[in-house]
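Example 247, ligand manganese (III) ion.
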Amino acid sequence: MSNNRRDFLKKGALLGLIGLGKGLIGEEKINAVEKISSSLNLSEKFTLPALPYGYGDLEPFIDKQTMEIHHTKHHQAYVNKLNETPSTNIDYLSPDEIKCTHVDKFTSAVIRNNLGGHYNHSLFWTMLRPNPEGYANLSEGNIAKAIVAEFKSFENFKKEFSDKSLKIFGSGWCWLIKTKEGKLKIVTTANQDNPLMQLDYERGTPLLALDVWEHAYYLKYQNKRVEYIENWWSLINWNKVEELYTK
Ligand code: MN3
């Protein structure tokens, strides 16, 4: 069924509900439908999420120009590509989430790459937060206890995560995940794959994500990925990691 047809049916159903239930008339009714339509994302288009901070707010660790290009060009391109791909949104988008768990080895490359790109970046932005004073930022709360329980110390965890991020050949991501059994693991994925997809990676819920594509750091760091990774530790939004861990 086409998007327009589905929108039409859903809006029609909403009109009926609102008309009967609330007794609204004329413009009131139209406004109510528009409000509900947008809250339900009835157009079923993928959209670029706004950043929870300004482009320059992650300086001096990630520069303003990199953030702006990364968000408005790279991330936007994944979103655009998904919206141009027929039928993508039927299976891979719900009002509340992007459904990467539907991706497997039979999924087309255009969906796999762009859906992953959209999901991974949407998550990545929320896992950063400004910290101009620099490194003073270790995990607290339940996630901190779980990290120490799994990796013996926070420093061990940091070293293993940094080493794995550094060793990714070409473009990819490094993740802290919670497996189905509740264990914490550090895994890496190539390109825009992620640990939710049904692929040949250890699967689990992403708790922390690091983008090591060159576009994430090249303007400021050139080939020095190691420095980008070290500075990224200053920017981690542990409140978000804790929220994902305890969910
Ligand atoms: Mn990126």
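Summary: DSSP finds ten helices and three strands in the chain.
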